[in-house]
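A further point concerns the way the authors explain their paired sequence and structure data. Since the whole study asks how a given chain folds, the encoding of that fold should be made plain. A single example would do more here than another paragraph of explanation. An entry of this sort, consisting of the sequence and the corresponding backbone structure tokens, reads as follows:

_____
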Amino acid sequence: MSDQIQRFLFDDTNVRGELVALERAYAEVLDRHDYPPAVNHLLGEMLAAVALLTDTVKLDGTLSLEVRGDGALALLMAESNPGGELRAIARLAEGAEAPADDIGFRELLGQGQIMITLDPREGHRYQGIVALEHDSLAGCLAAYFAQSEQLPTRLWLAADGQHAGGLLLQRMPDESRNQDHDAWERSVHLADTVKREELLSLAPRELLHRLYHEETVRVFEPKALRFGCTCSRERIADALLTLGEAELRQVLEEQGGIETQCHFCHSRYAFTAAEIEALLASSDEPPPVLH
């Protein structure tokens, strides 16, 4: 089964949905790191979620989903763009022991928050924040939509270290063409019957038939997804400038140059002292802070 996202809607209603299935992109993320199984599972859910959200908001740019907590898992981050490129990382808290395979979402992350950042190619950056007050990533994201978008939205997410899948349903605000006022409650009720194994093993069209064979569903062409890192020498250089001139010069004095790598794909970038001096000279104003 290829990595893809499948958009659909229910005719004569204001209910729309998406299904995502991931295997290769998920494997590419995990192959670059050595995380415990519990973290691998949650990273799969993050990848599925960020793919669903990017397609939902129709963003011409990058959407990032970041989870920070005070538990054993300090950070989860996933990014997606309209081209179908996905990437993700995780970071355990310093000194934390490897979590048990069956540890729960809240126990793994503790207290914290989820940040959803929309970074369009043109226009202003937007960031929404919601607290970790639910027992699953899907529950926290549904709370975010209820709080900031005021659009009823439900997600079902699953991952097992090899496959990741997700389902999203959303009720749009336009009631003018809605001829079935029970459609939202009915579609959610049917989606609640989905099994974890079905999200992970069934092709999107097969799963749609399983859930909604008695409904009139319009299915669109699927979009391919893949692992892709957006790092570049220019972006790494911008990130180095956020350290400030004093710290950069101290590193140059100690090491004679700077070598760093992308946390997502492990690509390495080396900068000589002359290149760092040129970067500092070309920076006429304080650089933007990368979040």
Summary: The domain at 233-282 is CATH 3.90.1280.10 (CBS domain Like). The longest helix spans residues 37-57.
